[in-house]
Write a structure and sequence with these properties.
The protein folds into two domains: about 140 residues, 3-Layer(aba) Sandwich (Rossmann fold), CATH 3.40.50; about 150 residues, 3-Layer(aba) Sandwich (Rossmann fold). It contains ten helices and eleven strands. Helix 5 crosses helix 6, helix 5 runs antiparallel to helix 10 and helix 7 crosses helix 8.
């Protein structure tokens, strides 16, 4: 049976259109379509860093970007598949609670590039992992906390006791102990990534037990500190503008080095499975100690000098902050 020339031409055009809509790993992309999938709102600090970096790339005209926030764990796989089927060439998100499902989707879409927050290893050929390895500025902020606490009691409120949180808390505690060996810690986890009221209540309990400085790994902690006239240390983002008399310092995470690398590799058709963890470290400008701002003159000059010296030692490769993923324990009596 012969095919009419017009039908054959239509079939060829249709096949070409379908091929064009399917992303191909290893083939350069002029303007990648990127999708972000977040289990929390855009305003949450961790997801916010991803969203901000990708929005910046979109503003520069480098990518087309769409994102979904507040995606439940049960719905995550479906949303991933929808974005992959819709022709997105790079999918960014967090796989911590949906590890098996996310990796299954990546296997089913080998031509799509995935850059996912994960505790696991990269999965060839297309599943890269990253994490906020910001233990260096966390250590520096701990030094400030140790020097600013008058009661020698620091309260620490985290989301979940997983490696991503534990390593920052442990680095913070080590920094505080370097400056003030007498300092004691109360550690609590609220088992949520976004529950400001619960974090606030946990912080109030620590203040009642004598803590005069709080490590705000979660939203809500700085509110408690502000209400009670105590100090706080921020994490991932700088909230000092909202709490000018409360937030002394913050360990900042910058996702831009990771996002920009992934986008560049997708554009060049060279994206592979790798661990992006190092791109969150200070030497790659993936993290930093936020400007001291309103506390510039309130922190003793001698303490600031020690922090700056340690900061330089880290940047020069002369001091390495230990990565301790073990669950931190309370030391307060």
């Amino acid at each position: 049976m012969s095919i009419h020339p017009l039908n054959r031409r239509h079939a060829i055009v249709l096949a070409a259109a379908l091929a064009a809509s399917v992303p191909t790993l290893g083939v350069a992309q002029a303007k990648p379509k990127v999708a972000g999938i977040y289990t929390v709102p855009f305003e949450q600090q961790w997801a916010g860093r991803l969203h901000t970096a990708l929005k910046a790339a979109e503003a520069r005209g480098e990518i087309e970007y769409k994102a979904s926030e507040n995606v439940s764990n049960a719905d995550y796989e479906r949303v991933m598949r929808e974005y992959a089927t819709a022709g997105n060439t790079l999918i960014v998100g967090e796989a911590f609670a949906v590890e098996a499902a996310a990796r299954k989707v990546a296997k089913d879409f080998p031509k799509v590039s995935f850059l996912m927050g994960s505790s696991g290893k990269p999965q060839a050929p297309n599943f890269s992992v990253f994490d906020n390895y910001i233990q260096e500025p966390a250590y520096l902020s701990g030094m400030i906390a140790g020097g600013m606490s008058k009661s020698n009691k620091i309260g620490m409120v985290g989301g979940f006791p997983i490696p991503e949180v534990n390593r920052l808390m442990n680095a913070f505690m080590a920094g505080a102990k370097e400056i003030n060996p007498k300092v004691e810690f109360s550690v609590s986890f609220i088992n949520s990534w976004f529950d400001p009221p619960k974090a606030k209540e946990a912080a109030f309990a620590m203040i009642d037990k004598g803590a005069d400085l709080l490590y705000a790994e979660r939203f809500g902690v700085s509110d408690a500190a502000k209400e009670k006239g105590k100090l706080a240390i921020g994490n991932v983002i700088n909230t000092q503008a909202q709490y000018p008399d409360t937030v002394v310092a913050s360990a900042m995470w910058h996702f831009e080095p990771s996002a920009d690398r992934a986008i560049k590799l997708v554009k060049e058709g060279k994206f592979t499975a790798e661990d992006y963890g190092q791109y969150s470290m200070m030497k790659h400008k993936g993290s930093s100690l936020a400007p001291l701002g309103t506390f510039e003159t309130k922190i003793p000059a001698e303490l600031v000098a020690k922090v700056r010296a340690k900061e330089k030692a880290i940047q020069d490769g002369k001091f390495s902050v230990k990565v301790d993923d073990g669950q931190p324990k309370s030391t307060a009596k």
